[in-house]
Specification:
- The structure holds 2 protein chains of 2 kinds.
- Chain A is of the alpha/beta class.
- Chain A has 2 domains: about 180 residues, 3-Layer(aba) Sandwich (Rossmann fold); about 70 residues.
- Chain A is about 40% helix and about 20% strand.
- In chain A, the strands form 2 sheets. Chain A has a 6-stranded mixed sheet with strand order 5-6-7-3-8-9, with helices on both faces. A 3-stranded antiparallel sheet of chain A has the order 2-1-4, with helices on one face.
- In chain A, helix 4 packs across helix 5.
- Chain A is globular and about 70 Å long.
- The relative contact order of chain A is 0.16.
- Chain B has 2 domains: about 45 residues, no CATH class; about 270 residues, no CATH class.
- The two termini of chain B are about 35 Å apart.
- The longest helix of chain B has about 30 residues.
- Helices cover about 70% and strands about 0% of the residues of chain B.
- At the A-B interface, strand 4 and helix 3 of A face helix 3, strand 1, helix 5, helix 8 and helix 15 of B.
C-alpha cells in the first residue's frame, strides 16, 4: 500500500511495531444497567432472570493493525459499532474481550467542547479541558495564546462560556482539541461543525494533523473524504468487520450494500403494502447481503 | 519505548508478556510515549486499585482544582448576593432551628445559637458533600462518554468544594463568637482542623460509595435525602445527651456508639461551645474506621469505574 498524496507521511522504516493493534476485540453492553436504571426495574428483571438477551455485542471479532503512516477510515451504517470502536481505542470504553494495544500519544476529537463548563470563562475552560486531557499545566499555559488566537474570540475569552454563540464554542473546542499534535489521531465527524469559513479553516488544520500523525482513525459518512484522505478503510455492520482494505474497494462495497439494502427495504415495503391490500402474503427470503470475508 | 512499568504500579507485571503496558488512564495522565494496552484478563488487586486511585487524584490535582472552582462558581452564580450566601445560609438555618427549639419546644440551653452552630456547620459540610457527590458522576454522563479521565476526581472535587463552603461556615462561626459570645473563645479553637481531618476522611469514604452506586441505582438520590435527614436528627446537632437527655437509657445511648458523627460533632462542640478537650480516643477510632472505609471506597470505585461509560 502506498501512501496517498495528502495523506500521512511516508512510512518510517525504523518503526516496525504496529502503532495500533487490535486483536479479536469485542465490546459487550449489558442492558441490565442501562441509562436510568431504577431499583424497581432491576428487581423486575432479576425476577424474570433472562440474562441472554439483556446483553448485546456492539463489536465483535475485530482485528486491526495500523502501521506507522496508516490512515484508516471507518465506515458503515448507523449502529454498526463505528463510534464504539473509536471509544475503545480512546480508552473510554474497555473491551469485553480481546485486546487493544496503542503505541503513542492519543488524541481523540470525538465531540467538540467536551468538558466545557458554562460558568467558567473561555480562558479557564482552556485550562479545564487541558486538565481533563491530562496535559500538564505548563504545556497548557504555553498553548493558551495560540488557542486564543486560533479561536478568534477576542475579548470574549474572559467572558463566561454561557455567553458564547454556538460557533464560538465550536471554534474554541476545535482549537483546544487540535492544539496538541498527537501520535494517533481519532476523529469522529467533527468536520461538519461551524460556519463555512471556519469549516474550511478547520479542514486545513485537520489535514495538517493527519500529515503529522503516525496514525489516524477517522469515522465518517463522507465517502469522498475516505478515498481522498485515507489509505485503508474498514467497513463495519452490526458490530462485525465486513471488509478491511483499499478505500476505493471498501467504499464501493459499502455503496453496493447500501443500495441493496435500500432495494430490499423498498421491496419489503411494497410487499407489506400489497399484503395490506390483499390481506396476506409474507416477506420473501431476503438475499444475504455482502460477504463476510475480510480483504486485508 | 515499551516500558511503562514505573507509572503502572504493578499492573504492568501482570501483562509482562505484552511488554509492560500502561493502562490508558496513566498514559493520558503523563502523555509520555508508552505502549498502552487494554485486555480483559488484567484485573488489579484491591491494594493496587487503592494506590492507583490515590495516584490519579494526585496526578490530576490540577483538574480537581478546576472542578472545585467550577462547582463553587455554580453555587454562587445567579444569585444577587453570590458568595455572601455561603455565610448567610448556615446563619439563617441556625436561626430557624433556634426558633424551633427555644420557642416551640420551650427548651432553654445557655447560648443555644452557638450550641447548634458549632455542630450545624460541620454537618452541613457533610450533607452537601454527599449530596453533591451522589450526582457527581451521573450528571457528567456526556463527558464520561467523550473523554478519558480518572472519574475519581469527580466525587473528590464534590467533597473539596463542600470543604471550601465549610471554611465560610467557620468564618461565620468566628464572627458570631467575636460579636456575641466572646467569653467562649478559647485557645482550643485552633484544634478544629484536627477534627475536620477526621470528618474529611469519613466524608470522602462515603462520597466514593455514593457516587459509584448512584450510577447503577439512581434511586440512591431519593433514598439519600431521607437517610441524611434521619442521620441529622440522630446526630447531636440540635441536641446532645449531655444538655438534653442526661438520663437517657442504654438503648437510646446506642446512637452514641453506632453513629460516627456523635464523637465528631461532639468534638466540635467541645472545642467551640464548652471550651474543653474532646474525646480524642473516640475520634481516633472514627479516623481509623474512615481510613479503612476510604481504602475500600477507592477500590470499590475503581472496580466499577470501567463500567461507567457503558452504563451512563
Amino acid at each position: 500500500m502506498s501512501a496517498i498524496p495528502g495523506g500521512p507521511a511516508a512510512r518510517d522504516p525504523a518503526a516496525t511495531d504496529p502503532v495500533v493493534e487490535v486483536r479479536d476485540l469485542g465490546v459487550q453492553y449489558d442492558l441490565r444497567f442501562t441509562r436510568r436504571t431504577t431499583m424497581r426495574g432491576w428487581f423486575a428483571r432479576l425476577l424474570h432472570r433472562d440474562g441472554s438477551h439483556r446483553r448485546f455485542w456492539a463489536l465483535r471479532h475485530v482485528d486491526l493493525r495500523l502501521e506507522h503512516g496508516d490512515s484508516l477510515a471507518v465506515i458503515g451504517p448507523n449502529g454498526a459499532g463505528k463510534s464504539t470502536l473509536l471509544l475503545t481505542l480512546a480508552g473510554i470504553i474497555r473491551p469485553s474481550e480481546g485486546e487493544v494495544a496503542v503505541r503513542g500519544e492519543i488524541s481523540a476529537l470525538l465531540t467538540l467542547g467536551a468538558g466545557f463548563d458554562q460558568e467558567l470563562s473561555g480562558g479557564d475552560n482552556i485550562g479545564l479541558v487541558g486538565a481533563f486531557l491530562g496535559i500538564d499545566g505548563r504545556t497548557m499555559e504555553g498553548l493558551t495564546p495560540a488557542i486564543t488566537e486560533y479561536s478568534e474570540l477576542g475579548a470574549f475569552i474572559d467572558a463566561p462560556l454561557k455567553t458564547y454563540s454556538t460557533g464560538m464554542r465550536a471554534r474554541l473546542g476545535f482549537a483546544i482539541a487540535t492544539a496538541v499534535q498527537p501520535d494517533i489521531l481519532l476523529l469522529d465527524e467533527v468536520l461538519a461543525t461551524g460556519d463555512q469559513v471556519f469549516r474550511a479553516r478547520s479542514l486545513v488544520r485537520i489535514r495538517e494533523l493527519i500529515r503529522e500523525a503516525k496514525a489516524i482513525v477517522l469515522v465518517t459518512h463522507d465517502l469522498e473524504f475516505v478515498t481522498e484522505l485515507c489509505n485503508r478503510a474498514l467497513l463495519l455492520d452490526h458490530g462485525e468487520v465486513i471488509a478491511l482494505g483499499e478505500p476505493a474497494e471498501v467504499v464501493e462495497l459499502y455503496r453496493t450494500r447500501t443500495a441493496e439494502q435500500r432495494a430490499r427495504q423498498e421491496a419489503e415495503a411494497a410487499v407489506i403494502a400489497a399484503g395490506a391490500q390483499a390481506g396476506g402474503g409474507g416477506a420473501e427470503g431476503a438475499p444475504a447481503g455482502g460477504s463476510g470475508a475480510s480483504r486485508a | 519505548m515499551a516500558t511503562g512499568r514505573t507509572g503502572s504500579r504493578g499492573r504492568g507485571a501482570r501483562v509482562a508478556v505484552t511488554g509492560g503496558m500502561l493502562p490508558y488512564a496513566a498514559q493520558m495522565a503523563t502523555r509520555t510515549e508508552v505502549r498502552t494496552s487494554l485486555s480483559t484478563h488484567r484485573q488489579a488487586g484491591p491494594l493496587e486499585m487503592v494506590a492507583e486511585g490515590l495516584g490519579e487524584l494526585w496526578s490530576r490535582r490540577r483538574l480537581v482544582r478546576y472542578l472545585v472552582g467550577a462547582d463553587l462558581r455554580h453555587t454562587s452564580s445567579n444569585t444577587l448576593l453570590g458568595e455572601v450566601w455561603w455565610i448567610l445560609d448556615p446563619l439563617l438555618q441556625m436561626a430557624v432551628y433556634t426558633i424551633l427549639v427555644t420557642v416551640i419546644f420551650q427548651r432553654s440551653v445557655a447560648d443555644y445559637p452557638i450550641f447548634i452552630f458549632s455542630a450545624l456547620v460541620p454537618w452541613k459540610w457533610f450533607s452537601t458533600a454527599i449530596e453533591d457527590a451522589i450526582g457527581s458522576v451521573t450528571t457528567r454522563d456526556k463527558l464520561i462518554k467523550q473523554l478519558q479521565f480518572p472519574k475519581i476526581v469527580l466525587p473528590a472535587s464534590s467533597v473539596l468544594a463542600a470543604t471550601y463552603n465549610f471554611g465560610f461556615g467557620l468564618a461565620a462561626m468566628g464572627i458570631m463568637l467575636v460579636l456575641l459570645y466572646p467569653a467562649r473563645i478559647s485557645a482550643l479553637l485552633v484544634l478544629i482542623p484536627l477534627v475536620a481531618v477526621v470528618q474529611f476522611a469519613l466524608t470522602f469514604a462515603l462520597a466514593l460509595f455514593a457516587a459509584a452506586i448512584n450510577v447503577f441505582f439512581r434511586d440512591l438520590r431519593n433514598v439519600s435525602r431521607h437517610a441524611l435527614r434521619l442521620w441529622f436528627y440522630l446526630s447531636p446537632v440540635l441536641w446532645s445527651f449531655e444538655a438534653f437527655f442526661p438520663e437517657a437509657n442504654r438503648t437510646l445511648r446506642l446512637v452514641e456508639t453506632v453513629n460516627p458523627f456523635y464523637p465528631v460533632l461532639s468534638a466540635y462542640r467541645d472545642l467551640v461551645y464548652y471550651g474543653r478537650s474532646p474525646d480524642w480516643g473516640a475520634l481516633a477510632a472514627v479516623l481509623a474506621v474512615s481510613v479503612l472505609l476510604g481504602a475500600i471506597g477507592v477500590a470499590f470505585f475503581k472496580r466499577l469505574e470501567p463500567a461507567f461509560a457503558k452504563v451512563l
